[in-house]
Specification:
Helix content is 27%, strand content 22%. The protein has 496 residues and is an alpha+beta fold. It folds into two domains: 232 residues, D-Maltodextrin-Binding Protein, domain 2 (3-Layer(aba) Sandwich); 212 residues, Dipeptide-binding Protein, domain 3 (Roll). It starts with a strand and ends with a strand.
């Protein structure tokens, strides 16, 4: 296998890129794990280092985990996983300033520990003798189990340095690090200490050899010639066609991603304070045309949740109706209103932003385009006093759940940093809160579907595309499983 460029880190506390997580999914294990299946079912979690689902008490605020007997770290540690390792792993996230620590601040005492006012996190009680870990939360949060399945929470030996380590530290995953040359090569061998257990079975191949410094053209060429089994890159449309050619020994497998693209409309600023104008934008948008900007990676959509997230129920993507949109703008008294459309200087944002401006012009508004570098643009969006009227946005969740879309992007009412649309409707807020508090997966998914429809009826956003990932793999590779969080699951692959 080969990567176009090295991962951002191979230390689970520090890693935050898909390239890194795709590697760490093979070496690490946490108390819980995502199901190793494609689609929205992959967003569900099952016990991993825990023997079973936790005992939950105190209204969902206390979780007690029993460690699985026989759980062991692979080489070079080769010792049992202990409860104290779990506690040390979670505390290490805060000591290290991990980008993922925000997901675990709901543990009682975590914020106090993060500020340096406590020697440990009071809400984590670990007993090596009993093999139990008790975690107390400030408030019930069903998504906390999903956070425990992320690579951030992969359990490492308690003696692991707080400083970032160059190679993946010893873990209890299906593979261990046989050798690592920083920035050049990583060799993973099947972990002899990993026990087969249901769908979290040990790896199917004996060795995974990863070239970390392969150039793009070199990797694509080797893949076409049959000298490589997988290239960790995002092939362009032209590259996908070449890989699928009759003279190629490779193929491209495509699957939906969790990323979604949309335009927000500020519900507190004219002319988008009028729901009719927001509905007009949604009616007039040519979503198919906007999706085409993504070089074949975009799929038109009229909703925020993509197909890989529980709660997705497809809303019809209607053809543009400019006449209806003009009537709505006229009825709202907004004809001729000046609008500034904001976007990034980079693609595909720049083209999508110009396309949106063209749409607004066709329905009777007077748009102008402003493009900024991404960091400057997001700072402008986050400060609601800037009164940004409409802007291009992308959302990629960390946790595969509706809460990471709706609660994050609409949470906080008037003050929510990511609530660029400024929507603050009591009925929607109550529905989001109800969905967030629901632990039963089917019921929770149904509530996120209801939230989607409630939000869509108020039109604070104009979603237009979700994206497809393309895995470039050899034809001899079978068992391809694309995961919503972890990407192509190498441990499930076989080579014929």
């Amino acid at each position: 296998m080969a990567t176009e460029r090295p991962p951002d880190s191979l230390d689970p506390a520090y890693a935050f890129s898909p390239r890194s997580w795709q590697i760490l999914a093979n070496t690490g294990a946490g108390l819980m794990a995502f199901r190793r299946v494609p689609g929205p079912d992959g967003a569900a979690v099952v016990p991993d280092l825990a023997a079973a689902a936790p005992l939950i008490g105190d209204g969902g605020r206390t979780l007690v985990f029993q460690l699985r007997q026989g759980a062991r770290f692979g080489p070079p540690a080769r010792r049992p996983v202990r409860a104290s390792d779990v506690r040390a792993t979670l505390e290490r996230l805060f000591r290290a300033g991990s980008p993922g620590r925000v997901l675990y601040r709901g543990i009682v005492g975590a914020r106090r520990f993060e500020r340096g006012h406590a020697a440990g996190i009071a809400g984590i009680v670990a007993s090596d003798r009993a093999g139990t870990v008790e975690i107390r939360l400030v408030r019930a949060d069903p998504t906390f189990l999903l956070a425990l399945a992320l690579p951030f929470a992969h359990v490492v030996p308690k003696e692991t340095s707080t400083s970032e380590v160059a190679s993946p530290p010893p873990g209890a995953g299906p593979y261990f690090v046989r050798s690592h040359t920083a920035g050049r090569r990583l060799v993973l061998d099947r972990n002899p200490d990993a026990a087969a257990r249901g769908e979290l079975r040990t790896g199917r191949v004996d060795r995974i050899d990863v070239r970390l410094d392969a150039g793009r053209q070199e990797a694509l060429g080797d893949l076409r010639d049959g000298d490589l089994d997988f290239a960790q890159l995002r092939p362009t449309a032209a590259e996908r066609r070449a890989l699928a050619g009759s003279d190629s020994r490779a193929r491209v497998v495509r699957s939906a991603e969790a990323a979604v693209y949309y335009f927000f409309m500020n519900t507190r600023v004219a002319p988008f304070h009028r729901q009719g104008v927001r509905r007009a934008v949604n009616a007039a948008m040519d979503r198919a045309r906007l999706a085409d900007i993504f070089d074949g990676d975009g799929v038109p959509t009229a909703q925020l949740l993509p197909p890989v997230i529980p709660g997705f129920r497809r809303l019809q993507v209607a053809r543009p109706d400019l006449e209806q949109a003009r009537r709505l703008v006229g009825a709202a008294g907004a004809r001729g209103a000046s609008v500034t459309v904001w976007g990034q200087t980079s693609e595909p944002s720049a083209s999508a932003t110009r396309e949106m401006a063209s749409t607004l012009r066709r329905i009777g508004l007077r748009p102008q385009v402003r493009l900024l570098e991404r960091t400057r643009l997001l700072r402008r969006y986050a400060d609601l006093s800037n009164r940004v009227q409409i802007g291009y946005a992308r959302w990629i969740p960390t946790i595969p759940d509706g809460a990471d879309y709706f609660a994050t992007l609409l949470g906080g009412g008037r003050t929510g940093r990511l609530n660029y649309a400024g929507l603050d409707v009591a009925a929607v807020t109550r529905l989001i809160a109800r969905a967030r508090a629901t632990a039963d997966p089917p019921r929770r998914a149904a509530l996120w579907t209801a939230v989607e429809r409630a939000v869509a009826s108020r039109a604070p956003w104009a979603p237009f595309a979700y994206t497809l990932r393309s895995d470039a793999i050899a034809r001899r590779v079978s068992g391809h499983v694309p995961h919503v969080v972890l990407g192509f699951l190498w441990m499930r692959a076989e080579v014929r």
